[in-house]
Amino acid sequence: QATHKAGGVHPDEQEVFARPDWQQRLSARGVEQAKIAREWIEKELGGAASFDLRYVSSFLRARETAAHIGGPEVTGWRKDDRIVERNWGVYGKASPEERERLFALTTLQKQIDPLNAGLDGGEALLSGVLLRERDFLDTLHREAAGKRVIAVTHGEFMWTARYDLERMSPEQWQELDNDDSQRIKNCAVLHYSRINPDDPTDIRKPMKWMRIVYPDDVAGSPSSGEWQEIPDRKMSSGADLLEEVDQFPRLIGD
């Protein structure tokens, strides 16, 4: 996709697309952002070395990011295939123009229902990425209870994790997905905590607070990078359920 973002085709497009996605490297700008992220993590979180467990996607650009975030002296990174980027299939190899021509229905479904839309030869977020994310969290529940964990992963995985960790409904996730101010940019940090940032004696289970920070633009981060309280999971009555579904009128009458 990066070969089309600037409007036009990059001269090295074919060489880039001939390489598997897991082998793609960071750009020079990506390396710079990773180094800025390291400074923020060291200042705000005590550095990558302070975490009890360190996970990294097996994709090369994630490994490269982890190396810059932790520095060459930090050891113990665990490569994990469950936290890799979403598989975009052949759809991800196509230019915007080719998508309109070859994958018109997929493009339409991705616009209408991005949470459930499957990509040609690739994954849907709910039926694909979410299953990997939940399996990864199950491991953390078993092996990392009470520990601090850092995971270097990818945007679509992080976006799906928000749906799960923040206990969203599909319509809540859709609303956030349509909000440009909530974008997960390159080297964004998603920070979740059970500890109240205003009262360290207040510890909750499950996680109750989160923030998103762009280390290279903290002021421009969602909610200016400030902590947000995650609402409790809503328990619904039958009346609540009917009110929710009535937001979407029937399209076919009796």
Plain-language structure description:
This protein has 254 residues and is of the alpha/beta class. Helix content is 38%, strand content 13%. The protein has helices at 13-17, 28-45, 60-70, 96-102, 104-112, 125-143, 155-165, 170-177, 238-245, and strands at 53-57, 77-80, 149-152, 189-193, 195-196, 199-203, 209-213, 228-229. A three-stranded parallel β-sheet has the order 2-1-3, covered by helices on one side. The chain has a three-stranded antiparallel β-sheet with strand order 4-7-8, with no helix packed on it. It starts with 12 loop residues before the first helix and ends in a 9-residue tail after the last helix.
Q: What is the 3D shape?
A: globular
Q: Work out the strand percent.
A: 5-15%
Secondary structure category: alpha/beta
Structural Rg: 20 Å
Number of helices: 9
SSE topology string:
HHEHEHHHEHHEEEEEH
| CA-CA gap between termini | 45 Å
Largest sheet: 3 strands, parallel
Based on DSSP secondary structure assignment, what is the total number of beta strands? 8
Strand order of the largest sheet: 2-1-3
Overall residue-averaged pLDDT value: 93
Percent helix, as a range, is 25-40%
Point out poorly predicted stretches. Answer: none
